[in-house]
Specification:
Number of strands: 5
CATH topology of the largest domain: 60s Ribosomal Protein L30, Chain: A
Strand content: 15-25%
Number of domains: 2
Largest sheet: 5 strands, mixed
CATH class of the largest domain: Alpha Beta
Helix content: 25-40%
CATH architecture of the largest domain: 2-Layer Sandwich
Length: 197
């Protein structure tokens, strides 16, 4: 078998074994990205996941100053900084490394996540409108010597993965320490989400 014949054989085998996708790339009539759906087209039933987890969202938080909880522009949803308000309406307070442990900080970050989800639902009608989490900024009210800010914000991030799935629930992220936060809350988080169009 000549080199040219072998190359043709391999190309044709690849077309048959992959339903034509790889062959389309080789022949130049299909781009690699057109063969696979984007994050915006892959369906994740976030509302069903929430129900399966037995999670009840708190009421959508009301602004305490001059802002709105979330803004949609184009196919992006930006949330304002959210704090940890429980389903009963109690605002958690404390400083991680002083009056709160790491585990308590993580629990507070998860509650912040519930509030963010509540704002998303109130803004666009359903969590199923979310294609993926894009970016998170997590702020931790902590002592100067506390160094586990990322572990605290994991409480939020793990919830996003549970609700939106491993692929769509992880985004870019920053976790930083603060000397104080409004109303002495332990965690404040803002995030950006891509929406399905």
């Amino acid at each position: 078998m000549t080199h040219a014949t072998r190359r043709t054989f391999l190309r044709d085998s690849l077309i048959l074994s992959t339903g034509g996708l790889a062959g389309g790339w080789l022949c130049g009539n299909m781009s690699p990205t057109s063969a696979f759906p984007s994050a915006a087209t892959l369906a994740v039933d976030a509302e069903a996941n929430l129900k399966r987890l037995g999670i009840t969202l708190p009421p959508p938080p009301k602004p305490v100053a001059v802002y709105v909880p979330a803004v949609v522009t184009g196919n992006l949803l930006f949330t304002s900084g959210h704090g940890p308000r429980t389903v009963e309406g109690k605002l958690l307070q404390g400083k991680v490394g002083d009056t709160m442990t790491l585990a308590q900080g993580q629990a507070a970050a998860r509650i912040v996540g519930l509030n963010v989800l509540s704002s998303i639902r109130a803004t666009v009608g359903s969590l199923n409108r979310v294609a993926r989490l894009v970016k998170v900024l997590g702020m931790v009210n902590a002592t100067a010597d506390f160094a586990q800010h990322p572990q605290v914000i994991n409480g939020f991030s793990q919830l996003m993965v549970q609700v939106f799935g491993e692929q769509h629930g992880k985004g870019a992220r920053s976790a930083v320490g603060m000397g104080s936060l409004p109303s002495n809350i332990p965690v404040e988080i803002e995030a950006i989400f891509e929406l399905r169009t």
